[in-house]
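Sequence only, no structure available. Ideas?
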Amino acid sequence: MEKTILNPQDFVKQVTIDCVIFGFENGQLKVLISKINFKGPFHAIITGFIKNNEDVEKAADRVVFERTGLKGIYLEQFKVFGKVDRQRREFIDELIQINNLESTAEINDYEWFTKRHISIGFYALLDINKVNLELTEIDESLTWYNIHEVPSLIMDNNEILTEAHKSLLDDINNKFTAFNLLPEKFTMRDVQDIYETIFEREYVRPNFQKKILQMDVLERLEKKFTGAANKAPYLYKIKNT
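Reply:
I predicted one. Tokens follow.
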């Protein structure tokens, strides 16, 4: 893919959106990781910039849409990252060296990336089966990784991912966020699978079902007929608010 240099004049200076996009598939909590469109072992969480005429939340929504094709998904701002030393200069220096960006013009094109940036962290939850991955000028590839098998990431992206994961765990019981990883209609077994995967523990089914129903956020629908009628589980969806 041809390298496209972003024009810094189009964006809010030295502020980025770092969005950790979570999905659930085959009993695994997964995160979307970009292989950056340069030579070298440069992997990153999903990153973008804020346009001068754009709200922060709209920017985060756009950054997710550009990679997944989905709009209006669940987004939660969880932390701002503003340490003076975020290894930005080291990353850019290595990128320039590996990619033989030797001319003054080429290096100047990347100079604004080396300056200190403040990052606003969001995490996103979505139905992975609805995603249609699309590459931007920043991405060589996009890959879903198991949360425990993510490759080494650039700069402080591993720290950002860790903080996003912690926030997800803290938020699930209070904000009922886990349901956003499921399709529109789901069974109670699907919900239990999500919780057991995220918290890495098993739940007693009757107790778990009672706990979930006491939240009073689900609407029971028709049964999901897959075999014997007396064993068919009910389908649920999130109540309209």
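Strands lie at 11-25, 28-36, 43-44, 46-51, 74-81, 118-125, 139-146, 186-187, 218-223, 234-238.
Hope that gets you unstuck.
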